[in-house]
C-alpha cells in the first residue's frame, strides 16, 4: 500500500499514465459524452456561479473589498474553472504535442484541483469555526458560498469529467493557500479593517477578516491556527479528496479499455 502511494507521487503533475500504466483519454475526460447534455449542465452551473458572485457583490457593504475574503478568492477560482471546463468541453482543444495535455487542459486541470480542495476547506472552516447560530440561520448565499460551489465542482470535475487528482498537484493548491495567508497577515497588521464588521474601535476583534485570525489582538492563536491549517488540515483534506476521487474510474483511451476487456475475457 505504501509503495502504491509512493508510485502515485512519482507520477507527473499532468501525467496521463496512472500507476497501472493505463492512459487517460483527454477527449473523453474534458469532452465527456453525451456532449450536448453535459454542455448544458456546465453552462447552467457556470451561470449559477456568476449569479452567486453578483449576489455577493450587490449585498456587500463595500464591494470594492470583495477580495479581502478567502471565500471570494474561492468564488473567483471556481468561476475560472467552470469557464475553462465549459470552453474545453465545447470548443477549445485539449491535446497538445505528442498527445499530452495542452495549456488549456492543464489550466482546467489545475483550476479543478485548487477549486475542489479550496471550497472543501472553506466549507469545513466556516461551519466548524466561523458560523455562529446565535446570529440566525444560514442564508442562501452563505450556503452557496460555503458548500454549494464545492458540490458544483465535485459534480463537474469528479463525477462528470472524472478528472484524476495527481498528488504533485498539491503544490499548486498549497501555494495558493500560502499566498492567501500572506495577504491575511498583511491585512491583519494594516489599518484596512473588516468592512463587514468594523465598529471603528481598534481594540476590538472586528477589524480582522476572520475572528479566529486576529493577528493584532491574538497573534499566537492566529499563528497556531494558520500552521495547523497550512501544514495539517490542508494536506490531510487534500489526501481525503484524492482518495475519494479514486472511487470514480477515469476515462481511459480505447486501447486500454480493449486491453482490460481482453484480460477479463482471458480470465473467464
* Beta strands, count: 0
Please tell me how large the radius of gyration is. 21 Å
What is the CA-CA span between the terminal residues? 27 Å
User: Helix share of residues?
Assistant: 55-70%
Are there runs of 5+ residues with pLDDT below 50, and where? none
Shape: globular
Structural class: mainly alpha
Biggest beta sheet attributes: none
β-strand amount: under 5%
**Could you state the order of secondary-structure elements as H and E?**
HHHHHHHHH
Number of helices: 9
Indicate the mean pLDDT: 90
Can you give a write-up of this model?
- The protein has helices at 2-10, 26-30, 35-59, 70-90, 103-130, 140-160, 170-188, 219-245, 254-267.
- It is mainly α and 268 residues long.
- The mean pLDDT is 90.
- Helix 3 (35-59) runs antiparallel to helix 4 (70-90), helix 3 (35-59) runs antiparallel to helix 6 and helix 5 packs across helix 8 (219-245).
Topology:
Layout lengths: L1 H9 L15 H5 L4 H25 L10 H21 L12 H28 L9 H21 L9 H19 L30 H27 L8 H14 L1
Helix pairs in contact: 3-4, 3-6, 4-5, 4-6, 5-6, 5-7, 5-8, 7-8
Protein traits:
mainly alpha, 268 residues, globular
Summarize the structure.
The chain has helices spanning 2-10, 26-30, 35-59, 70-90, 103-130, 140-160, 170-188, 219-245, 254-267. It has 268 residues and is an all-alpha fold.
Amino acid at each position: 500500500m505504501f509503495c502504491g502511494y509512493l508510485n502515485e507521487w512519482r507520477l507527473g503533475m499532468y501525467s496521463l499514465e496512472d500507476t497501472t500504466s493505463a492512459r487517460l483519454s483527454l477527449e473523453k475526460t474534458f469532452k465527456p459524452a453525451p456532449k450536448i447534455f453535459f454542455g448544458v449542465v456546465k453552462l447552467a452551473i457556470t451561470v449559477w456561479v456568476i449569479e452567486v458572485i453578483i449576489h455577493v457583490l450587490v449585498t456587500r457593504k463595500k464591494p470594492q473589498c470583495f477580495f479581502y475574503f478567502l471565500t471570494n478568492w474561492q468564488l473567483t477560482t471556481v468561476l475560472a474553472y467552470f469557464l475553462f471546463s465549459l470552453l474545453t468541453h465545447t470548443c477549445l482543444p485539449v491535446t497538445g504535442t505528442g498527445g499530452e495535455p495542452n495549456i488549456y487542459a492543464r489550466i482546467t486541470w489545475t483550476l479543478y484541483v485548487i477549486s475542489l480542495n479550496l471550497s472543501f476547506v472553506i466549507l469545513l472552516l466556516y461551519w466548524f469555526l466561523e458560523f455562529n447560530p446565535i446570529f440566525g440561520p444560514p442564508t442562501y448565499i452563505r450556503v452557496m458560498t460555503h458548500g454549494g460551489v464545492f458540490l458544483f465542482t465535485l459534480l463537474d470535475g469528479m463525477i462528470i469529467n472524472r478528472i484524476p487528482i495527481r498528488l504533485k498537484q498539491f503544490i499548486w493548491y498549497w501555494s495558493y493557500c500560502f499566498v492567501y495567508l500572506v495577504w491575511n497577515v498583511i491585512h491583519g497588521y494594516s489599518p484596512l479593517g473588516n468592512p463587514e464588521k468594523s465598529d471603528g474601535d481598534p481594540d476590538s476583534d472586528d477589524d480582522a477578516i476572520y475572528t479566529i485570525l486576529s493577528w493584532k489582538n491574538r497573534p499566537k492563536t492566529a499563528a497556531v491556527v494558520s500552521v495547523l491549517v497550512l501544514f495539517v488540515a490542508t494536506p490531510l483534506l487534500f489526501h481525503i479528496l484524492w482518495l475519494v476521487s479514486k472511487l470514480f474510474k477515469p476515462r481511459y483511451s480505447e486501447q486500454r479499455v480493449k486491453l482490460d476487456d481482453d484480460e477479463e475475457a482471458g480470465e473467464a
